[in-house]
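In response to the reviewer comment on reproducibility (Comment 2.3), we provide here a single inverse folding case reported in full, input and output, so that an independent group could reproduce the run without further information from us. The structure tokens appear first.
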């Protein structure tokens, strides 16, 4: 059955409660835990804030822009166009580093695994900061990775999505343009993808079937799945919230510029934009 994509347009607008500007270039990565909010920019810096948006410290090691950023337990992992991946603690100490041969474009942390993908078409798997294996199957740069249980998903510049099982190629799926973001649902039965073809799609892990989806009016940079909710951000300056059970966009959050990344938990949402700013929403 072919799934029709519906563009619901802008349904509502919400105001942010705080905007901070600690970066001198685009903010391309944001993530947070129960204590801290972390942002990464094309200025090569990683900034740490409290949940009220107060700046705590800046981490500086990368020689080029940040391309991916994750917070996992008591650690921050940042990847860069300078081909390096750095593991930090929240005091700014460096716990480990490794390299690709070209720019690192994507990062996933799952249990004790750290998985990176790069412009060298490689996916590299580390466990407890020790090299485990490469995943070979992409013929263009790997823009996004996510993992759940024994499954890994990855997307590339050719619009291809690869689903891996036990580190072996399992299924392939396709967008019309570059795949920029992937995210498993909390139960691992489905995953969402975001693409330069302006669509967000939800897929079945078991069958590879496209279950539903929706449009932005421009490139979609990031997507995440929270139970019955899909959230995505775009070059169109919006963050859309899509209710899966109703197949309907429930809310639009509007920023003043392109939104590159966001994180959401317990009613709080933080996003990073092309205008070098970090937005805090309730």
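Designed residues, in position order:
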């Amino acid at each position: 059955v072919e799934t029709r994509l519906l563009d619901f347009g802008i349904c509502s607008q919400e105001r942010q409660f705080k905007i901070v500007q600690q970066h001198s270039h685009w903010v391309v990565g944001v993530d947070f835990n129960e204590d801290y909010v972390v942002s990464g920019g094309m200025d090569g810096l990683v900034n740490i804030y409290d949940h009220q948006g107060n700046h705590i410290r800046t981490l500086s090691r990368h020689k080029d822009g940040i391309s991916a950023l994750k917070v996992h337990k008591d650690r921050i992992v940042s990847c860069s166009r300078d081909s390096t991946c750095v593991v930090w603690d929240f005091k700014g100490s460096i716990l480990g580093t490794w390299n690709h041969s070209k720019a690192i474009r994507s990062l996933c942390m799952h249990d004790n695994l750290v998985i990176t993908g790069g412009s060298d078409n490689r996916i590299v798997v580390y466990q407890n900061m020790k090299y485990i294996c490469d995943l070979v199957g992409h013929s263009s740069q790997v823009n996004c990775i996510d993992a759940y249980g024994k499954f890994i998903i990855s997307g590339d510049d050719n619009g291809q999505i690869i689903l891996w099982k036990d580190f072996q190629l399992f299924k392939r799926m396709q967008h019309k343009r570059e795949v920029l973001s992937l995210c498993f649902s909390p139960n691992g039965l489905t995953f969402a993808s975001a693409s330069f073809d302006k669509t967000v799609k939800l897929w079945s892990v078991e069958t590879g079937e496209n279950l539903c989806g929706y449009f932005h009016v421009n490139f979609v940079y990031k997507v995440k799945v929270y139970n019955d909710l899909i959230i995505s951000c775009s070059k169109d300056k919006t963050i859309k919230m899509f209710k899966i059970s109703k197949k309907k966009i429930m809310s639009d959050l509007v920023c003043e510029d392109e939104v590159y990344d966001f994180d959401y938990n317990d009613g709080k949402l933080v996003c990073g934009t092309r205008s070098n700013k970090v937005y805090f929403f309730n």
